[in-house]
Specification:
It is a single chain. This protein has one domain: 5'-nuclease (Rossmann fold), CATH 3.40.50.1010. With 147 residues, it is an alpha/beta fold. Strands 2-1-3-5-4 form a 5-stranded mixed β-sheet.
């Protein structure tokens, strides 16, 4: 559907680094390419910082992670605000997902996203108009309409 926005969780970005999971690496790259082409992918600073945290802990596995993280910033560097955390409290109590996942879900809702790309949550679940999509269970073409 035109106007769709897809929030990208850190795991999709991180799989683009993964030399051991070739199939997931390719699917993650396919998703990011398609989301870039349609200008409908979006993320925030929390996600970029999560990627940096993992990449620096596993620095021997990830050659020059900051170059790639800087490239991922094309999808957004939106901050998380105090107001975001207030809404997150309600989602956390209702859903019982981890706090950090609820914070990202709230951010996606605030940014007007229709889909939330993550392998960590329940594929197909709808939360206040936001649909969780497992990027390894679906192709971009199944979710994103052509422009």
């Amino acid at each position: 559907m035109p106007g769709d926005k897809v929030f990208i969780d850190s795991n999709t970005f991180l799989y683009t680094f993964d030399e051991d999971e070739i199939a997931k690496r390719q699917k993650a790259q396919d998703w990011l390419t398609r989301l870039s082409e349609c200008s409908c992918g979006i993320t925030n600073l929390q996600v970029l910082n999560e990627i940096a945290s993992v990449a620096t802990r596993k620095s021997s596995r990830f050659a020059d992670p900051f170059f790639r993280i800087d490239a991922f910033a094309q999808f957004g560097t939106f901050p998380v605000t105090f107001e975001t955390s207030l809404v997150t409290r309600r989602l956390h109590m209702d859903l019982r997902y981890a706090w950090w996942d609820c914070l990202l879900l709230t951010s996606a809702l605030e940014l007007g996203c229709t889909h939330f790309l993550s392998e960590d949550l329940q594929d197909g679940q709808r939360i206040e108009g936001l649909t969780i999509v497992d990027p390894f269970a679906h192709s971009p073409e199944q979710i994103i309409s052509s422009p």
